[in-house]
Structure prediction request, 328 residues.
Amino acid sequence: MKRTAASYIVIFFAVFCFCADSQAAFCFDFQRDVASHFFWTKSYKAKHPEPTNNMPKTMNEYYREANKAAAKSEEIPSPKFPKDSKIVDLPDPSITLVKYNNPPGYIDIDLNNLKKTRKINSIGVVSPAKDKLAYSTVYYFPSTKTAGTELYLMNLDTKKSLYERVETAHVNQGKKTILRTGMDSLDLDIQKTLTVVDWSADGKRIAVKEKISFTPDGLWKTNLLVFDLETGRTKNLSEVRSAIQYYWQKNHGLYLKDYRWDIYPLGWDALNPDRILVFAYAATGEKPKFLGTWSIDYHGDRSMLMSLTSTNFKVSQNGMCLKTHYDY
Prediction:
């Protein structure tokens, strides 16, 4: 059967209409889906409900919800272990008053945490009369990498027992600065500390060591100072350092200025309470060279060489301090 031109025209028109209807239907569905996303149509709202706002509207609602949450929370039970009879309980530390300068000249301020805490207090040293306490505070200044120290004197409450007056000592009872070092210096990397060596036997003077350090090189120099409570003045006993240098230069041809050397203050001489004993060392090799035991009176008038070989000299222990220890 041969088709005429008219029949082809009819078929083409029918196919065109069908495709046009299909494309129109597809376009309509796509537009409807997009509109449902952006304009929240009923079908989209049914599948994606709006988030609910559970925040309390009033303070009463807030407290009510908080009480409900507290009621629901349960305490986590702590683990319980049966006691082992083989485990020995460690004793509780006890605090007692002990002699301060023991062993002689050994005590220094622990500066390990100074950069972190920026301030460290030394041990408080009680006077022989048990009515005063001396201690120092070291301050760290990170901008200049320097450290300065203030030495304080505090009155103790003599109405209390000896242990209580020391344990409850507080700055509110009144303190005053008697020595300062490095607090006004602008030198970079310099640290200066003040440490109590010991009280004199009569309680009228305090021997103090000033340590000067430089960050790249470590300890530079130790100075021996004496603060007089009666006059309120401080004497730098630099004469003992000069005497040591003079002796070794004159008698042995050793110029200590060419070496790193220092003194080690021990404390007050037990046989002569007006004098202070020091050791001297020079870093001339792997092993420091002992430069002798020396003594000097608190006025700085006369320095004496006690021995070039012996360190066996009796040092008095006049001050007291609190110490924590364990009883085993």
